Amino acid sequence: MSEPILKAEDLNVYYGSIHAIKGVSFEVCEGEIVTLIGANGAGKSTTLNAVAGILRSRTGSVTFLGENLRRVPCHKIVGRGLALVPEGRRIFLQMTVEENLEMGAFAQPPAGIPADLEKVYDLFPRLKERRKQIGGTLSGGEQQMLAMGRALMSHPKLLMLDEPSMGLAPILVEQVFDIIRNLHSAGSTILLVEQNAQAALSIANRGYVLETGKVVTTGAGKELLASPEIKKAYLGG
Amino acid sequence: MNFIIQFVNSLTSGGGGYQLLNHIINGISLGSVYAIIALGYTMVYGIAKMLNFAHGDVIMVGAYVCFYAFNAMKLPEPLAMCAPLLAVCAAVVVCTLLGVGIEKLAYKPLRAAPSLAVLITAIGVSYFLQNAALLLWSSSPKVFPSFFVIRTTDADGESVVLRSVQLGAVSISYVTIVTIVSCVVIMLWLTWFTGRTKMGKAMRACSEDKAAAQLMGIDVNATISLTFAIGSGLAAIAGALLCSAYPNLVPTTGSMPGIKAFTAAVFGGIGSIPGAFLGGLLLGVLEIFAKAYISVQLSDAVVFAVLIVVLLVKPTGLLGRAIREKV
């Protein structure tokens, strides 16, 4: 295994007096798909937000490509190559598809944007059809594609996806996981947070299982998928 | 308010069929000033989600700076034409810095505070500016200079001052023309800025979702500062235009137009730039009509009554959109 590009050590995040993340540590190596799974409220999204700088950990450190991100303000992190597709997609509903994608490239030099737009449109032809449409008029699945395309505009070295299948019809869920698999085979490194543990583990190289703010189990995706406890707790028996 | 009374008088003395046209033009002119102020209100609200009640007082500061800068300038004859423009520029610079300073000192520390705390702070800043102006410039009214006139000589070699152009029976003052043109130019510029430029788009992104904007790499604090800078710069222009039409300058000059412009912003749909423009113009025309045809004393009551009716029928204002969430 190569040197990890992302290393989170001993993260402790509080919401007021609530201790949401209790000493979480994990790492992601180049070219991997790593997934964090767990029930509602286990702290998966909180962990991602702490890595992306939206929330701050009181202790520990997040090291990305050898740099400690502790003192890096949130808006500078995407320029370092760490992009987050947030939970609930959070696209700009009143801006057009193309403007949303341009915002994704905010930290990039403007000269490269037209070529990057074409790349994203190749990946998601639906977005090209709707490039002048307002984000709010897209369907849920299209919005998810837009959110992923927007993150790809920043040339991420690590793409973090927070519940990309949430609220989507089963056929679209499958499509989203196909896209993740394609991105991965094209060389992207992915950190995936999912409630759909079955689907997430089946495409992941490694997984971490979170329970009430702690990592309780870790292992290869296939191993976790086969483990009887995991099956019982997250995969419905 | 002499301006208005003059019109009411000319109505009773019978100005012919052009009276209505005159009222419309004056309404649009007053409305343009409201629109420029309302744009500042609405942009700041759209991004910082706060009502900057000190905005009206920034107008007053702008007018004072303009007044003193103009009087201090002693330009040789061919350059004297530029003096008003330079004075307005000075006011824009001072107000831009003032707006950014107010945001940094008073509002930024309250970014995470409840909105009521921010609102009360804004009212505090408003009183602070009025009282600072009282100390600096005293309560005695200043007569604002006539900026927008053309000085020329007539056939007999006498120097004359032209204040308006005569189009048939309708006379339009230069102030009116400059005000309406400024408002249209500002509106077009803002539309271009928010629709076409990177920073303008970042501003719209921030107004929709600050956390997502940060994830894109947008510096939210810098964007908020920029918004205050633009809004306050516009307030300075509005101050100069307002005092050119109503030349009585006192430390409370800004409060009533500020409240009217806030009303205009709500009327048009707060947060919406075209809404502020439309709301400002309609409010101005409504006010002049109410003064001309109903009662000078009751005109504000009429204006606010219409506002209440509009908000009852369409609570988000004329062009405001209800926030829809798609899950």
Note the topology.
The complex is a heterodimer of chains A (237) and B (327).
Chain A: E1 4-15, E2 18-29, E3 33-38, H1 44-52, E4 61-64, E5 67-68, H2 74-77, E6 82-85, H3 97-104, H4 113-123, H5 125-129, H6 140-152, E7 158-162, H7 170-185, E8 190-194, H8 197-203, E9 206-211, E10 214-220, H9 221-226, H10 228-234
Parallel strand pairs in A: 3-8, 3-9, 6-7, 7-8
Antiparallel strand pairs in A: 1-2, 1-4, 4-5, 9-10
Helix pairs in contact in A: 3-6
Chain B: H1 2-12, H2 19-48, H3 55-72, H4 77-80, H5 83-107, H6 115-137, E1 142-143, E2 150-153, E3 159-162, E4 164-167, E5 170-173, H7 174-196, H8 198-208, H9 210-215, H10 220-245, E6 248-249, H11 255-268, H12 273-294, H13 299-313
Antiparallel strand pairs in B: 1-6, 2-3, 4-5
Helix pairs in contact in B: 1-12, 2-7, 2-10, 2-11, 2-12, 3-5, 3-6, 3-10, 3-11, 5-10, 7-8, 7-10, 8-10, 11-12, 12-13
Note down, in words, how this protein is organized.
The complex is a heterodimer of chains A (237) and B (327). Chain A has 237 residues and is α/β, with parallel strands linked by helices. Chain A has helices at 44-52, 74-77, 97-104, 113-123, 125-129, 140-152, 170-185, 197-203, 221-226, 228-234, and strands at 4-15, 18-29, 33-38, 61-64, 67-68, 82-85, 158-162, 190-194, 206-211, 214-220. In chain A, the strands form two sheets. Chain A has a six-stranded mixed β-sheet with strand order 6-7-8-3-9-10, with helices on both faces. In chain A, a hairpin with a 2-residue loop joins β9 and β10 (214-220). In chain A, α3 (97-104) runs parallel beside α6. The longest helix of chain A has 16 residues, at 170-185. The two termini of chain A are 32 Å apart. The model of chain A has no long low-confidence stretch (mean pLDDT 93). Chain B is mostly helical. Chain B has a domain at 32-251. In chain B, β4 (164-167) and β5 form a beta hairpin. In chain B, α5 packs across α10 (220-245) and α8 (198-208) crosses α10 (220-245). The longest helix of chain B is centred in the first third of the chain and has 30 residues, at 19-48. Chain B is globular. Classes of the chains: A alpha/beta (237), B mainly alpha (327). The interface between A and B is medium-sized, with 32 and 21 residues.
